[in-house]
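To the team - CO-5-methoxybenzimidazolylcobamide complex, inputs and output below.
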Amino acid sequence: MEPILKEIYQGIIDAEQDIVREKVQQALNMEMEAGKILNEAMVPAMTEVGRLFEEGEYFVPEMLVCARAMQAGMSVLKPVMVEQNLQSVGRVVAGTVKGDLHDIGKNLVCMMLEGAAFEIYDLGSDVSPDAFVDKVKNSDANVVVMSALLTTTMPNMKNTIEALKAAGLRDKVKVMVGGAPLTQKYADDIGADGYAPDASRAVALAKRLVGA
Ligand code: B1M
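Output:
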């Protein structure tokens, strides 16, 4: 791994927000691609944080501060990844489903969709089926993105799809789902229009679903 990427990777594992912010900026100043910084340093660092948690070396507070360091780095990358003045190709209501506070992956998906000229209505995390329904009803959205990181919250994706159906809004939007425990089969079983395993494939899927 290149030294600057190693420093970003280690900064996230050590939960050093300022160092991560500074090193990500430094990497960009060196004309390193934002996607490379994300995929070769930042995402692997969060995977390592997960491993440390599984092995009992890190606990929830450590995961949380590491997540903040990751978000600090993402805030530096975002303006670079979001291209300006592009005509909107679609409008997305996005959120992590009810009961689930994991928002890094969802934020990454939103960031990359925004960079691909989608408009984003980000509802955040712990989003109830009713909140998804309200936003779809009161906006011109044509895509819904749901994220779940916990096996226990995945059923809330199905509940949200059912709520959209009950409100007569299911045909107005394409529903995309993702998150580490998800599979294509699960997406098919709950009646989603698509599943993407990562943020870049989420962009390709969204474009396909809206015919862009
Ligand atoms: Co939690 N956590 N966590 N956690 N956490 C996991 C998910 C876990 C796998 C850790 C472990 O045990 N190894 C485990 C889940 C086990 C399971 O259900 N199978 C777990 C647990 C158990 C918990 C708690 C229950 C712990 C506790 O309290 N005892 C608790 C639950 C809280 C809650 O949500 N109600 C909890 C809490 C937390 C923190 C709050 C401390 C923190 C989250 C902070 C935040 O997000 N703001 C946290 C973190 C950081 C993690 C790990 C370490 C990292 C997650 C992450 O951000 N990854 C995670 C372990 C791991 O994943 N290795 C873990 C980086 C991110 C870029 O990847 O989110 O997968 P990811 O997103 C990817 C793809 O999945 C995809 O694209 C992204 C990038 O390309 N994607 C989509 C995501 N959403 C998509 C939507 C799409 C398409 C693609 O739509 C189309």
